[in-house]
Amino acid sequence: MITLKGENIYLRALEPEDLEFIHSIENDETIWEISNTQTPYSKFLIKQYLEHAHKDIFEVKQLRLVISSYDEIALGMIDLFDFDFKNSRAGVGILVKEPNDRLKGFGSEALKLLIDYSFTHLGLRQLYCNISEENAASVKLFSNQGFVEVGLKKDWNRVNGSYENEYLFQLINN
């Protein structure tokens, strides 16, 4: 049986009521580096995105889920992106929005649920993620879930006028 429910959190589909939450994430300049965002998003554009969020991962090549507490508080988002059915792989991105909600195991639990779902339900063979060399918390999160560093992309991302390296991590389901 496929479940997206963990001990402390569950993963759920996007809802129209998530407009304000997503708008606050997409327009938070402190996390633009993580999401590779360059400009703010309007509520109009996010509303249009939410209207199409029901589309199948096979069609749009992305699955975005809300990390939610059992008392219905949206804690963050977790994504599968660049879904590649032919090669049986996808990228993973995760964000726990509020700093005081981080390092409490929510991200780890969400990532484990998404990995299980990806391998058992979607039939993927591998997942990958890109992590800034400076992001020790994400390196630890993904490493603890079995992802292995397979490369370092030199001077990959321009951040505040200088270039930073980025790791490529991979998890293969054998």
UniProtKB/TrEMBL annotation:
Ranges of residues in domain N-acetyltransferase: 9-170
Domain of life: Bacteria
Keywords per UniProt: Transferase
SUPFAM superfamilies with a match to the protein in the record: Acyl-CoA N-acyltransferases (Nat)
Gene3D superfamilies membership: 3.40.630.30
Transferase listed as a keyword: yes
GO molecular function: acyltransferase activity, transferring groups other than amino-acyl groups
Keyword flag Cytoplasm: no
One Pfam family hit: Acetyltransf_3
Protein name in the entry: Diamine N-acetyltransferase
Organism of this sequence: Flaviramulus basaltis
